[in-house]
Amino acid sequence: MAENLxxxxxxxxxxxxxxxxxSEIALRxxxxxxxxxxxxxxxxxxxxxxxxxxxxxLSVSYVDHNCLQVGFRNADDHRxxxxxxxxxxxxxxxxxxGICHQLHMERFGVPGKTLLGSDSHTPHAGCLGMLAMGxxxxxxxxxxxxxxxxxxxxxxVNVRLIGKLKPYVAAxxxxxxxxxxxxxxxxxxxxxxxxxxxxxxLTVPQRxxxxxxxxxxxxxxxxxxxxxxxxxxLKAEGREESFRELSTGEGMEYxxxxxxxxxxxxxxxxxxxxxxRVVPVTELxxxxxxxxxxxxxxxxNYHDIVSVAKILKGRHVHPDVSFSVSVASRQVxxxxxxxxxxxxxxxxxxxxxxxxxxxxxxxxxxxCSGGVSVRTNNRNFQGRSxxxxxxxxxxxxxxxxxxxxAGTFVTAAEYAEQLSDYREPEHYYVDDSMIYAPSxxxxxxxxxxxxxxxxxxxFTPLPxxxxxxxxxxxxxxxxxxHIIPALPEIAMYRSNIPAISQFVFHGVDxxxxxxxxxxxxxxxxxxxxxxxxxxxxxxxxxxxxxxIKAVIAISFARIHSQNLANFGILPLEFVDETDYLRIAxxxxxxxxxxxxxxxxxxxxxxxxxxxxxxxxxxxxxDYQIRSIRAGSVLTLAARAxxxxx
Length: 645
Ligand code: MIC
Ligand code: SF4
Hints:
The chain contains 23 helices and 27 strands. The protein is α/β, with parallel strands linked by helices. The radius of gyration is 24 Å and the shape is globular. The two termini are 39 Å apart. Bound molecules: alpha-methylisocitric acid (MIC) and iron/sulfur cluster.
């Protein structure tokens, strides 16, 4: 049996480690991407490592998240990002050019390469046969400095697709079906590698939607073969020379196989407040809707918006619905304008938004109180939209457009005819004039930092004994949106850790930051899958600033546990998950003998209030233990640079 594509790419990029699933490997990274909300920290960290130029084949800095620009902070951050990119050898995509994942797919992704991005939806580029992973900004900074990326060797699952989608059933319904089957925890420690005749029938942008939202399954990443579809897409982008054939599936060895018959799928919807609360749209037919938004990196590509335009053409949005569209890239917007589709969308009574993430992370378009909002993005955690008591429902663009017209949930089945003649363009319009190449010699470039850009906090080394209170106890599936919301009034402090730390658990327990300051930090106690969702390292950095020393959970999401370890917070797990229930907020807890107990994995948590002991475990590598002891990965990396390693 031949080796699968994921393992082939890993093998060809392996810097260290043993490729047995679950053990730590170090991977060479070819390309990196950042976006503005995580990029500011990533570049401050890169600067602090002290290297004159990035060592990757390609690094790109996109600006797409924090673009509302209420006050000076976002604009200052953008200026910082542009100058720092120019100085250190990074391409810079200006705000207005589009959303990072869509742009990377269009202009830079290359089959067979590795990509690390400071955004959890970086696996989007798996649509091109790349091994693309999300990580915290610090991991990206280290990758740009030439360090390999440390990750657990994943299990590889073959997702065999057979059959063909009906015209009103979309790629979004494929990934919603997988979320329905496997849940938001189902993909942890795994890669989904797609194969089969159904996969061959999907275009690159359709594959992108599926890979993108694999992040919601908790996957390390997702990948499609690089085949004729890939060649056609790269050719249409004027980049056929980047193509290289890479197959998946038949004759290859996998840890598991799953089959999905595309022809059996019907339109699906993820209900509030979790992407895996999936039911058929037909179950909600008749339910009134207040708002519909088509947009985001998941579903605002050319095919998506053309389908929306075809459904809207000659019709008008329901009077009780606020309908908005954000296109994912300038290339797509230009084509829609030229081909008349934009006119059909405007005529239907649509609010046209900027080419950014926008409403996805609550940057504008918050729904009305108790509202029903139907969206095409990937996450619907409570409060993420900006209205805590609103319910966000995730659907395909086709379902969204049909629903906007009806004013209640409906599928796009009645538009099947209009949708069935879609063809991918032979040529995409290409205009890279909003992507700036860096200066050949960056030594004279001045990096401009506004007053909102604060330096990095100090990372003091880990003591052998930690004592403190359980300052909060939270449930299962706490996302980073619960820990540090992406809302604009908070996200504008992404480059200012002291300020953003005041918002930790803002929507869950607004007294948290004050309590931490009063108690000088302590412990977070959590249920399963703690830290799912985004890659934002602020969900670790800000608690660390508040004095949190360990998070003790039943289990963790991959990127977040890595971020905790990067910044010197211990991610520890209960051996007996019922012990989670024995700890109450305010209990005084103690961990001792850490220097010996961490390498031996024999840590015991003492509950001094109840006089009980709970055995703990961890999945930290030796490298992570060393970095936690040193205070952070950054401390270790800076030492290595000083030594000239
Ligand atoms: C998200 O979709 O949650 C975000 C906003 O893109 C985050 C990144 C961030 O918090 O800046 C992500 O997915 O990693
Ligand atoms: Fe932007 Fe939303 Fe995509 Fe995150 S998920 S990159 S906020 S569009």
